[in-house]
Amino acid sequence: MPPPEFSETYLEASIEEASTRAASALMGLLGLPWPVEVELAHRWRYALPQTSVGGFWLGDRENRVALIGDGIAGAGVERAWESGLRLAQALIQAREELASCESLREASLV
């Protein structure tokens, strides 16, 4: 992820320039070929929540909905990103546990 100086440098740049520079930095970090076409970009300009819920995500299994972001995990794009990552990890783990339970159930029926 680009350092905070990146955001400061391109804060007033056009959305096209800022998104092209950010995509270039990301591709460099990931070791992927450049150039790429940027479909959509959003600036994280005003993401400064005064409080956070705590934890990394909130979920309601019954309604199959989850919330992520800096309002949950704390201020900063890094915390928002980690919030999404942690939810993804939890979903993968839940899927693996469900598959394991189903395998045990099927084995007991044999």
> How many structural domains are formed by the residues?
2
Report the end-to-end length measured between terminal Cα atoms: 51 Å
| Order of H and E elements | HHEEHH
Question: Which percent bin holds the helix content?
Answer: 40-55%
Shape: elongated
Sheet bearing the most strands, described?
2 strands, antiparallel
**Low-pLDDT runs:** none
Residue share in β-strands: 5-15%
Please state how the strands of the largest beta sheet are arranged side by side.
Answer: 1-2
| Class from helix and strand fractions | mainly alpha
Number of helices: 4
Average of the residue pLDDT scores: 83
Question: How many β-strand runs?
Answer: 2
Radius of gyration from CA coordinates: 19 Å
Textual characterization of the structure:
This protein is mainly alpha-helical and 110 residues long. The chain folds into two domains: 1-43, no CATH class; 47-110. 55% of the residues lie in helices and 5% in strands. The chain contains four helices and two strands. The protein has helices at 4-10, 15-30, 70-73, 77-109, and strands spanning 58-60, 65-67. The protein has a two-stranded antiparallel sheet. β1 (58-60) and β2 form a beta hairpin. The longest helix has 33 residues, at 77-109. The protein is elongated.
